[in-house]
Amino acid sequence: MFVVLIPLTVVSIGLFMWWIETYTDSPLAVFWRATSSASHSTRGFSVRIPLFCLGGLIVCTSVLAELSGVPQWTYKSLRLFGYFLFAVAAAYFLPLPVPHCIDANWQWHKRRGLIDENGNIIPTGSAIAETSILQIENTAMTLTATCTPPSRWHSLATSAIQKPTRETLLLALTGPDDPNARFSSTITLTVSPINTIPQIGDLTEALRTTIPGWITLEEIPSPRPPGAIMCTGIYIDEGTSFTSIQFQWATPTTPAPLRFTATLTTTTHLFPACASDIFTVINTLKITQ
């Protein structure tokens, strides 16, 4: 009997790990997803794991039932049902449709509001936003911002982000999340009718004014976009450390020049994994009038 308890324990743990990885964003689930092989991201894997584990659980239970002296038809029926689950799991090595209710990838996107009205995952692709800003001369200007989001990043409705004072939110992306802080990384692009060219020190002063406890790590010129300033710094909010990279540059447009600001905000814990993403956005960013 004790020999049966070993596989029973293994399949029970496997079923538990599948459940928290599919339906939660707990630290254990995030760790498990990070250390799992690439096959865990395939849709068929979301079905094979629970079916194999559930089938193993039922077969082990049938063995215990047999050893306990229950009627033969009872434990044999259980065992046959377990074998049936094994067969269904094996069939999912083929490209069969996976129900959304057990699709780990679909559930992950659902928790982040990345499912469209038809129940499909919103694909990663070009993020486009249009907005009109009112100039001093009471002239409306329409701008279109386009970029190619990095992997793991999706377009976010600009209405979901609070707009800074005197700035118009043109583009917003949401990316990797930190379950410990319950915070999703963001990249935003704002525009304001300021016709002065940014100088070294401007970003530090502005960020210290708007973010309590802001500490600048560096503020340097950036070759992209041309004439830009880049500022990197950290701050603490409700016990969580955040790191941010901000680019600012001016562009000659009519009827008045504009200043653009692109900002990556993420937890310091996730910063090493997200730092390069803002550069991908900057390098693929196109703004048309």
Task: Provide an overview of this structure.
The chain has helices at 2-23, 27-35, 43-67, 72-91, 104-111, 202-210, 271-284, and strands spanning 127-134, 140-147, 154-155, 168-178, 183-192, 215-222, 228-237, 240-251, 258-267, 286-288. The protein is elongated. The termini are far apart. Helix 1 crosses helix 2 (27-35), helix 1 (2-23) packs antiparallel against helix 3 and helix 3 runs antiparallel to helix 4 (72-91). It is 37% helix and 28% strand. It has a 7-stranded antiparallel β-sheet with strand order 3-4-5-9-8-7-6, with helices on both faces. The protein is α+β, with helices and mostly antiparallel strands. The mean pLDDT is 79. The longest helix has 25 residues, at 43-67.
Task: Describe the secondary-structure layout.
Blueprint: H1 2-23, H2 27-35, H3 43-67, H4 72-91, H5 104-111, E1 127-134, E2 140-147, E3 154-155, E4 168-178, E5 183-192, H6 202-210, E6 215-222, E7 228-237, E8 240-251, E9 258-267, H7 271-284, E10 286-288
Antiparallel strand pairs: 1-2, 2-10, 3-4, 4-5, 5-9, 6-7, 7-8, 8-9
Helix pairs in contact: 1-2, 1-3, 3-4
The arrangement of helices and strands along the chain is HHHHHEEEEEHEEEEHE
Shape, principal axes of CA atoms: elongated
Work out the radius of gyration: 26 Å
Q: Strand count, sense and closure of the main sheet? A: 7 strands, antiparallel
Low-confidence stretches are none
Q: Residue share in helices?
A: 25-40%
**Mean pLDDT over the residues:** 79
Strand order of the largest sheet: 3-4-5-9-8-7-6
How many separate helices? Answer: 7
Strand percentage lies at 25-35%
| Total DSSP E strands | 10
Helix vs. strand class: alpha+beta
Distance between the termini: 75 Å
